[in-house]
Amino acid sequence: MKTVPEIRQALGLAVEAMKAASSAIAETRAAARTAAEPDKPAAEVKAAAASKAYDDARAEAADLAEELKRAEEAETVAARSATPRQTPEGTLATVPASPKGGDEARKMAPVRRMVADMMVAHSRGQIDAEKWLILAYGEEAAAVVKATHQLTSYATGGALSLPDFAETIIEGLENMTVVRRMQPQVLSVPGALIIPRETSAPSGSWLGENTAGTPGVFGFGDIKLDPKRLVIESVISRRLLDVAARGGAAVRNLEAYVVKRLREKTAVNEDAGFLRGAGTEFAPLGIRYQAVAGNVNAISGTTAAQIEADLRSLPLKLETANIVVQAGYWIMPPRTKAHLATLRDAIGARIYESIDENGTLLGYPILTTNQIPTNLGGGTETEISFVNGPSIIVGNGSDAEVRVSIEGSYQSGAEHYSLVQRNEILIHMELYADCKLERTEAMAVLTGVTY
Question: Can you say how many angstroms the Cα of residue 29 is from the centroid of all Cα atoms in its chain?
Answer without folding.
Answer: 54
